[in-house]
Specification:
Helix content is 50%, strand content 8%. The chain is mainly α. It has one domain. Strand 1 and strand 2 form a beta hairpin.
Length: 247
């Protein structure tokens, strides 16, 4: 109940204050190609229920028809205005509407496309037991996801091999330990990360220690070492085929 109250109050005021930036950005998106400034993305929510997530459109029209779900900073589908949107996470600010509606929460595992949740392991399916969020521990640790994939020849496969294993583990850690205090802390650190990612990552380490995270997860979450392929939680093999769940 308190979590939902926090969601409603902060998302309402967030949209109110954010309108100063959102409205000019919406106009700029429309002026670049005279198409809708919004991209309505179908995502998998709590208990695997599909919902329509509102995002500011950062790509060219019909970009989703390419069949590629993961993007990099060099993705040619991203528009000039889209680069600005992604740099300042404005597409996530628009998702406060989904929080206000009850589709999402301010804090929770990030929502994914059905093609990805279909290949979740049984362990990863627990990520769908609660409302997805705008931010969480993984959102701070992997805030540079596009940069990680910038030189990738297959962004979707590299995402599943390099990012998903740890993103899912961090999401599961949140599912098992979520609290109002943790939510407030993560909202604060998400804001801190915009100005100082290093400071935010240092604070995340303290959270991981407090939550009893495994040493390997803490090591990767420092983001000082190169990411290497690793099996997702609940699997023993690295993902090599995105069309089937890993063994």
């Amino acid at each position: 109940m308190l979590k939902r109250l926090l969601d409603v109050v902060l998302s309402f005021f967030g949209l109110l204050v954010g309108s100063v930036v959102l409205i000019p950005t919406i106009v700029a998106i429309w002026l670049q190609d005279f198409h809708s400034p919004f991209y309505i993305a179908t995502r998998v929510g709590q208990n695997e229920k599909l919902f329509r997530m509102v995002k500011l459109r950062s790509m060219v029209i019909n970009a989703d028809k390419s069949g590629v779900d993961s993007t990099s900073t060099k993705d040619p589908r991203i528009t000039r205005v889209g680069q600005f949107i992604r740099s300042y996470k404005l597409d996530e600010l628009s998702q406060l509407w989904n929080v206000l509606r009850g589709d999402m929460s301010l804090v929770g595992p990030r929502p994914n496309v059905k093609r990805e949740t279909d290949i979740y392991t049984r362990e990863e399916k627990r990520l769908l037991s609660m409302r997805p969020g705008i931010t969480d521990i993984a959102s701070i640790v992997f805030s540079d996801e596009n940069e990680i994939l910038k030189d990738s020849q297959d962004p979707d496969l590299d995402y599943n091999q390099l990012i998903r294993p740890w993103k899912s583990r961090l999401g599961l850690l949140y599912v098992d330990n979520h609290s109002l205090t943790l939510d407030i802390n993560l909202i604060y650190l998400t804001a801190v990360a915009i100005g100082s990612r290093e400071r935010a990552l240092a604070s995340v380490q303290k959270i991981l220690v407090k939550l009893g995270a495994e040493p390997e997860l803490r090591r990767v979450s420092r983001r000082t070492d190169k990411l290497v392929p690793y099996p997702p939680p609940g699997a023993t093999e690295i993902v090599t085929n995105r069309d089937a769940p890993p063994a």
